[in-house]
């Protein structure tokens, strides 16, 4: 390699590096859905190379002292883009990074906030749930996203919540609450008292089919309690931001209640899990996005849960 050729290589790599930095600093689009509450709308899709794992709603709350991040997206790159969105709004430090539950689309951007030295916050059950799935989650992420997953890692909570707890962002108290096993066994909601904004994590799916990775009966109990909180604004884990939440919660409750009812009936009739999966809830297909990806899995989960109750 002569000197001119070597320089061309150097210039080429500098250009690539600049392009990478520029890309990583592109801010994730966010909407201020209530004063101080900024949310990003994820794609209503499963994670792919094309969407870069950006499929969950994520966001942040800004106080007078510091910022709390609520879920960080499906990759380090998305976490960095969320951080850039925060920097476009405020120079205040990020003091909390809250994970609403263990799923990859909500946690894999955590590493983007490492240098901010925040408290990483989650349910007391989050660390164990992440640890037992870490290898599978990493493998699936690399398989599904390829190079878009680069640098993504699981960062465990440093502050845990069991029941309720509050954090103070300066002039803004945020209440964190854990729930009976529902979407997962480590669901946590975030409630901004000042604006009455509830970040439900995946306890609420809007338009996208609810995914049962915990307990259908527990979820039905939690829905009744979420209704009692009567928030002014809601950020669901998936689907449109700040929807007419009564209707959205009703639709989710009806799907889960019908699922439990039909699975119980199938078990009573002596049907196998296979028969239940082939027959139950197929008329829901047109009501939900991602039905083909998750409905059968939900029937399987409900069957496993309800099989032994009689
Ligand atoms: Zn989830």
TrEMBL record:
InterPro entries the UniProt entry points to: Metallo-B-lactamas, NDM-1-like, RibonucZ/Hydroxyglut_hydro, SoxH-rel_PQQ_2
Keywords assigned by UniProt, alphabetized: Signal
SUPFAM superfamilies: Metallo-hydrolase/oxidoreductase
Signal peptide: 1-19
Domain of life assignment: Bacteria
Matching CDD domains: metallo-hydrolase-like_MBL-fold
Residues annotated as domain Metallo-beta-lactamase: 55-238
One Pfam family it belongs to: Lactamase_B
GO annotation terms (biological process): antibiotic catabolic process
Listed SMART domains: Lactamase_B
The UniProt record lists the keyword 4Fe-4S: no
Family as reported in the entry's similarity comment: Belongs to the metallo-beta-lactamase superfamily. Class-B beta-lactamase family.
Alphabetized NCBIfam families for the sequence: SoxH_rel_PQQ_2
Entry protein name: Beta-lactamase domain-containing protein
Species this protein is from: Caballeronia temeraria
């Amino acid at each position: 390699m002569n000197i001119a050729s070597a320089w061309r290589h150097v210039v080429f790599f500098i250009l690539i590096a600049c392009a990478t930095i520029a890309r990583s600093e592109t801010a994730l689009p966010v909407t201020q859905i209530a004063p101080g509450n900024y949310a990003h709308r994820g794609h209503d899709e499963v994670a792919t190379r094309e969407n870069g794992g950006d499929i969950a709603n994520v966001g942040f709350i800004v106080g007078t002292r510091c910022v709390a991040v609520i879920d960080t997206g499906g990759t380090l790159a998305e976490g960095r883009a969320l951080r850039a969105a925060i920097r476009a709004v405020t120079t205040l430090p990020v003091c909390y990074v809250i994970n609403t539950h263990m799923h990859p689309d909500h946690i894999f951007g955590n590493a983007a906030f490492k240098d901010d030295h925040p408290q990483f916050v989650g349910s007391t059950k989050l660390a164990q749930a992440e640890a037992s799935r870490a290898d599978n989650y990493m493998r699936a992420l690399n398989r599904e996203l390829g190079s878009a997953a680069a640098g993504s890692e699981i960062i465990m909570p440093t502050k845990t919540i069991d029941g309720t707890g509050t954090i103070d962002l300066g002039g803004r108290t945020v209440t964190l609450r854990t729930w009976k096993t529902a979407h997962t066994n480590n669901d946590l909601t975030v409630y901004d008292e000042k604006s009455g904004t509830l970040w439900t994590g995946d306890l609420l799916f809007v338009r996208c089919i609810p995914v049962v990775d915990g307990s259908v009966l527990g979820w039905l109990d939690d829905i009744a309690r979420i209704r009692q909180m009567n928030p002014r604004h809601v950020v669901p884990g998936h689907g449109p931001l700040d929807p007419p939440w009564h209707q959205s919660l009703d639709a989710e409750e009806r799907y889960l209640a019908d699922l439990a009812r039909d699975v119980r009936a199938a078990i009573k009739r002596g049907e196998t899990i296979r028969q239940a999966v082939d027959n139950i809830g197929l008329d829901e297909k047109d009501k939900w996005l991602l039905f083909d990806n998750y409905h059968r899995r939900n029937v399987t989960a409900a069957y496993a849960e309800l099989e032994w109750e009689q």
